[in-house]
Here is the input.
Amino acid sequence: MATDISKLGLKTKWQDLTGGMIVAGAGTSRDFNTGEWSSNKPQFIEEKCKQCLLCVPVCPDSSIPVKDGKRGEFDYKHCKGCGICVKACPFGAITMEGVK
Ligand code: SF4
Ligand code: SF4
Here is the structure.
C-alpha cells in the first residue's frame, strides 16, 4: 500500500497512506515540507559569519545551502530546529528563536 505522494491531501483516507517502514520511492524528501514540525527556528547573523562552513555538514536535514563556496539562508521548509548548527558555529553567527 504505497501512496502516490503527489496525490496526498486532506481528503486522503488513512487506508491509502503509506504504511510505516515502507519507502515508496527514492529522492522524495524535497516533496515533504517537514520544517513545519519545528518549534524553534535558527537565525543566521550574516555579519558575524566567517564562511567556515562548519555548520553545513552537521545539519541532519541538509537545510544549510552552499553556493559558490558560501553558505546561504536556512531552508526553513526542511529545517527541524534541532539547534545542532547553533552549537557547531564557533563565531556566534547562528541563534535560535522559538516559533510563535
Ligand atoms: S536547526 Fe538543525 S535542522 Fe535546522 S539548520 Fe540547524 S542543524 Fe539543520
Ligand atoms: S559555522 Fe557559523 S561562521 Fe561558519 S559558516 Fe556556519 S554560520 Fe558561518
In short: Helices lie at 55-58, 84-88. The chain has two helices and four strands. The longest strand covers residues 40-44.
